[in-house]
Write a structure and sequence with these properties.
It is a single chain. With 187 residues, the protein is an all-alpha fold. It has one domain. The chain has eight helices and two strands; from the N terminus they run αααααααββα. The chain has a two-stranded antiparallel ribbon with strand order 1-2. Strand 1 and strand 2 form a beta hairpin. The longest helix is centred in the N-terminal third of the chain and has 26 residues. The radius of gyration is 19 Å and the shape is flat. The two termini are 34 Å apart.
Length: 187
């Protein structure tokens, strides 16, 4: 009983911080490459799902277009890599900007909608993305996706082996921002 009281007295963000540190240090703690890759993919999907959590869980709006915005950003970064622009910070900024533009352009018609109308409007965007990729198949690889991308760099240094740390670092940073947004006076 005393242990339970002690654990409840610890601020909840401490547990998230410890979990984030363990995930970040997992390769150094002996995790093999296959499990590290799975953890990296889980972090990427956690970023996508966090957008749905913000819109549906906290704002109460059923908007399902996060996957389309994720695809727009991912294809932007991939096309930049194919073109030889491998700086990951530039790719992150460009991908975020494109995803933001797609979200704003597709969200403006949904401003007056709510409930299921908003859900169907944003879901339509998800249904539209594979067709757009097929139309521009020569550039996007169609429904099979991109290939031939160069490994990412950070300040001119190849980070192919350290890409895991970049993904996990961005994920941790985003969840810190999201937590601060949610618990803030405006959140």
């Amino acid at each position: 009983m005393q242990i339970w009281r002690t654990l409840r007295a610890i601020p909840s963000w401490i547990f998230a911080l410890v979990f984030g540190a363990v995930v970040f240090l997992a390769p150094m703690l002996g995790m093999d490459a296959t499990n590290t890759r799975q953890l990296q993919l889980a972090c990427i999907l956690a970023l996508v799902v966090s957008g749905l959590n913000l819109s549906l869980g906290y704002a109460g709006e059923l908007a399902l277009g996060q996957a389309a915005m994720y695809a727009a950003g991912a294809y932007t970064a991939g096309l930049m890599s194919q073109a030889g622009h491998t700086e990951i910070l530039l790719q992150l900024v460009a991908a975020g900007a494109v995803a933001l533009v797609v979200g704003i352009v597709t969200g403006i018609p949904g401003l007056r909608l709510g409930s299921w109308s908003l859900a169907m409007t944003s879901f339509f965007l998800i249904l539209l993305v594979p067709d757009i990729l097929a139309i521009f198949g020569g550039k996007t690889g169609g429904r099979n996706g991109l290939s031939g991308m160069e490994p990412p760099t950070l300040f001119g240094q190849d980070i192919d082996k350290d890409f895991y740390y970049v993904v996990v670092g961005v994920t941790i940073l985003w969840f810190v921002v999201m937590r601060n947004l949610v618990v803030s006076r405006h959140g």
